[in-house]
Every structure is written in C-alpha cells, then in structure tokens.
Amino acid sequence: MSVDLRLTVLGSATPHPRPGDPCSGYLVSAGGTRLWTDAGSGTLGELQRHVRLDELDGIWISHLHADHAADLLTAYYGLLYADIELDAPIPLFGPPGIADRLAHFLTNTSRRSPVESAFAVHELHDGHRAAVGGLELTSRAVEHGMPAFAVRIEAGGRSLVYSGDCAPCDGLAALVPGADALLCEADGPDPSPAHHTPEQAAESAAGAGRLIVTHVGPFLAPDDAVARAAGRFDGPVEHAAPGATFVL
C-alpha cells in the first residue's frame, strides 16, 4: 500500500544555527513512524513542534560534527530527566564510536554517563540496513574526511536519499537511482574534498525525481544555490527552508 513519505525541515543552517534556522535536522515520517534524521544545534526545540521525544521511533545521525549531532546531548537529558517516561531506549543509528563520544561529552566525573539508558545504539557501516517502524533504511559510507554516511529511506514505494555531509562519491551515487528525491548538501560556491557545490548536488541527483538543496553555507545564498543547481538538473529544485514540509 502506498503511503506518503514526509520530510519536515527542522533546520538547515551551517556551521552554526542562525535566528529562525537551526543546524541540520529533519523529521522523516510515513504512516505512524517518525525518524529524527541528524540532530544539529537547535533542532531539538523544533522537533517538539511535531513530536515528543518519547514518540520517536528512531534517530539516525550522518556524522559527529556538532552541526549534525550536538542536540543528542540535550536529548539525553530530555529522555532521562524531564517529563518523559521512556518505555525503552530509543534506537540510535550513527557512526562508529558515537556512544563513547556522547558519554565523554556528558561525563564530568570518573563515572561514564549511561548513554545506553536513553539510546539503543546501532553503529553504522557501509551497506548497513535497518527497519525502523514502517521505514527501511540503507546507509552507505561517504567522503567527508571522517566517518560519515548517507542514507536511503523507503516506505510504501516512496524513497528519499539524504547525503549527510560529503563530496560527490560512489557511496552516495549508489543510493540515488530511482529515488523520489535527493536531499543534498550544497555547502559552498567552490569544490571541496568534503562538500558539494550546487552544481555537484545537481549531478549527484541524476536518477532522482527531485532535488532539495540543504546545508547552504554562509558564502552562498539559498536562492543562488537553487538557481545554480537548476542549471544542471532537469527536475524540480527546491531549498530545504526551515519549517518546510515536502511530501513525496
């Protein structure tokens, strides 16, 4: 049965949050399943406009830079010490070492913070597959100068690919063919070994029905990023503006 796959933009700013625009974070939902995808600075507050923490079915993190993962720290406190009764730790999918990284940030004594009380941690690897409620996730390793992943999310015959942060690479390219949309970073105006330009985002979107550019850096206006990408991509090109919802 076909269901709507929805992408809600919690924030898309980089490298730090801006007024009205947190860092990278998205809510992906289909049917009754809700997945927090990247947890950049400021996204936890926006997430709660749509879903309580204890209503999440899972969290997926592309890499451990703060503009994609910092709000896991405050989510930890919310899950364990706020007005939430957690039936079980929330599945957390992220790069190798994510649990220890969180524990080191949270610990201020010789005792390790019990991050596993809040999160059921699953470390990603190239080709990792998981089911989260009604969502099917396939993760591939990508080029970002550190352990980093892109993901293809599928539900009811619909599919969304999210690049995370990366340069054009085989791992991302393997996920895109036949996808309804590619949510792709377009960080800056010039090529980089760790990021896409808008033109490269358009090239990476070949085989997808739609391109949504995100993570547009401070040296490139979102409208310019859309225009530059549209010159290389035949389908619709849009910007992941904070608060926007895309129905696939």
Automatic annotation (TrEMBL):
Residues 33-215 form the Metallo-beta-lactamase domain. InterPro entries: Metallo-B-lactamas, RibonucZ/Hydroxyglut_hydro. Residues 186-205 are annotated as: Disordered. SUPFAM superfamilies: Metallo-hydrolase/oxidoreductase. PANTHER family: METALLO-HYDROLASE YHFI-RELATED, ZINC PHOSPHODIESTERASE ELAC PROTEIN 1. This is MBL fold metallo-hydrolase. It comes from Actinomadura sediminis.
